[in-house]
Amino acid sequence: MPDETLAEFLNRSCQCIAVDRQKLERSLASGFGEPGYYARLRESHPNLLADFPIFVAREHIAAMQAVIDAIEHVVSLESYREAVLAWAPAIARHAGASHGVFFGYDFHLTTDGPRLIEVNTNAGGALLLQHVAAAQQACCREVGDFFPGPNGIEDMEQVFVDMFRDELRAQRTDDELDCVAIVDEEPQAQYLSPEFELFREMFASHGIEAIIADPRDFELQDNRLITDGRTVDLVYNRLTDFYLESPACATLREACESGAAVFTPSPRDHALYANKRNLSVLSDADALRNMGVPDDVFQTLSVAVPRTVLVSADDATALWAERRHLFFKPVSGYGSRGTYKGAKLTKKTWLSILQSDYVAQALVPPGERLLITDGAMQAFKVDIRCYVYRGEIQLLGARIYRGQTTNFRTDGGGLAAVFTTP
Questions:
Q1: pLDDT value of residue 249
Q2: What are the DSSP calls for 260-290, one per residue?
Q3: Where in the chain is the domain with CATH 3.30.1490?
Q4: pLDDT average, residue stretch 211-229
Q5: What is the DSSP letter of 213?
Q6: Could you name the CATH architecture of 3-277+367-419?
Q7: Spatial distance between the Cα atoms of 289 and 162, rounded to a whole number of angstroms
Q8: What is the pLDDT of residue 222?
Q9: How far is the C-alpha of 77 from the C-alpha of 62, rounded, in Å?
Q10: Can you tell me the distance from the alpha carbon of 317 to that of 160, in angstroms, rounded to the nearest whole number?
Q11: How many CA atoms lie within 13 A of 218 on its CB side?
């Protein structure tokens, strides 16, 4: 049976492979350094971790890597950088040498191959997915063909730690990584706050202190960024204030601009890769041609990036007429907030979109995973996320959901492991 056909078959029919909850309990207890954590996590975050994996054909993974390679080429072009930095705040033009950790390239898999939905520069979930994948076992020969075998959490964590060390050395050649600040607004209130704790334990196991902090918790002293009495070498930036514009981020903004600490991902990373306006360039044939993009890169992007346009009042009539074939996203949005499937738009919401800053993207239905829930077979939607560093896929994950967006409210849904052939 061809690889792709087998992947589709397993996504439709495989119900027997699932998370070994006792194994996941032991894995998370080790990761958090705290026994019984999985039970508490299931109570506080019942729809965070999915029980069932997603199967992805090897050729789809190769196609996703080709898209990532194509975008890396475009980002390297000075003409592209000038175009996208022109609509970003001034801090994004502050050149840094870091590359940006945990880029998230989100795809929908179609019968014609993967389609890029968006790029994120502070994609969460990677450490949690490692534990979910490690707790699943092959149940039959067909699944065994996809199952990657023993999942080396410690090996993958070493890759991640080395990545953060590389980020520091890219900007400070001779420095050692001693203290990392994991930063988000009110971090303990964030839905993925359990992952912050996993990161802290991961860093500690490699001799690196990690402090989970709110942006208000910092001060600058002699061009050193200080929190909790410690000098911070590197800020692992999980903020959705991508350009550090709020008053709460004033100290961090100054530290970023002065080089008091290395920021990853940085405002520049977001401007070059993840600003949703950029999709209007990456899907515009004329713009790509004018930038001198080679034919192979052009062909890859023209197929894989759904046509995306900036929403403006001038195009309101045409966009409204085509709305059933479009998906609307706020330029500064994140986590599916403020997104709308065009078919469900009301006139009132449409008027609000026209007064805001949005893009309209050609609608690409997500993939499907059939699972038995409540005694009946149900179709779940699937997004595939590639966790990427320096243009290379480090890890694959998926989000299983029902409804319009990935919202971690679906019973049986959540972050899911991805299996593929060796």
A1: 98
A2: SSEEES-HHHIIIII-TTHHHHHT-HHHHHH
A3: 310-363
A4: 97
A5: E
A6: 3-Layer(aba) Sandwich (3.40)
A7: 37
A8: 95
A9: 23
A10: 48
A11: 33
What letter represents residue 186's amino acid? E
Q: Where along the chain do the CATH 3.40.50.1760 domains lie?
A: 3-277+367-419
Q: Which two structure tokens, joined as six digits, stand for 164?
A: 């953060």
Q: Which fold has domain 310-363?
A: Dna Ligase; domain 1 (3.30.1490)
Looking at residue 154, its pLDDT comes to 79
329 contacts 358 by C-beta, under 8 angstroms: yes
- Rounded CA separation 401/366 (Å): 10
Specify the residue for token string 């002065």.
258
- pLDDT tens digits for range 137-176: 767 777 777 766 545 677 889 999 999 999 999 999 889 9
Asked if residue 256 lies in contact with residue 266, where contact means CB atoms within 8 angstroms, the answer is: yes
Beta bridge partners of 55: 419
Q: What is the pLDDT of residues 232-258, one digit of tens each?
A: 999 999 999 999 999 999 999 999 999
Contact assessment for residue 317 and residue 300, using Cβ atoms and an 8 Å cutoff = no
Residue 406's Cβ-side half-sphere holds a number of Cα atoms within 13 Å equal to 23
